[in-house]
Amino acid sequence: MGPLQGIVLIEFPDMAAARAWYESPAYQTAKQHRDGAADGEFFIVDGGLVAPADRLPQLRNR
């Protein structure tokens, strides 16, 4: 696999909404067109909101 050529980020209100979208008949139909036509990986990540001061604490005081 070569270098990353693009990224798509979609935000949902919660994990249940993300899963409902992924499992929806509309997305599954669209997914059939993408499969075999492009290489990609799909992740559902529960990120939440993190205050800037709390991000990457391991890098503070370096």
Task: Pick out its properties.
single chain
Number of continuous helical runs: 2
Helical content band: 25-40%
**Which spans of ≥5 residues are poorly predicted at pLDDT below 50?**
none
Number of DSSP strand runs: 0
Topology pattern, helix = H, strand = E: HH
Mean pLDDT: 83
Label the structural class: mainly alpha
Beta strand %:
under 5%
Q: How far apart, in Å, are the first and last alpha carbons?
A: 34 Å
Radius of gyration: 16 Å
Shape: flat
Largest sheet: none
What does this structure look like?
The protein contains 2 helices and no strands. The chain has 62 residues and is mainly α. It is flat.
Per-chain topology:
Layout: H1 15-23, H2 25-34
Please sum up the structure shown.
The protein is mainly alpha-helical. It is built from two helices and no strands.
